[in-house]
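Per reviewer request, we include the raw input and output of the structure prediction for the construct analysed in the revised manuscript.
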Amino acid sequence: MSLDINKSYKAILSGARQGRFVSYGEVAAASNVEWKKARRPLPLQLDHLVQISHDRGWPLISAIVVNKDNIESGNLEASPLQDLWRP
């Protein structure tokens, strides 16, 4: 099973409407994909959502997706960005 961009979008949108941050694991779970299998493709999917958001003039919806340890604070860490650029 793979990540579904529409389910990811809906999970992020739901969190935004509730005024809360969303973990990467929650986004993976929305597509019924275990975190271990979603870890690599998820940053690329979020990058795709950034492009869609930009093209449509939306707010940057992926900005509320954070590591589970940062759900309360919303702090972004460098590692997801580094993973995105790793071959």
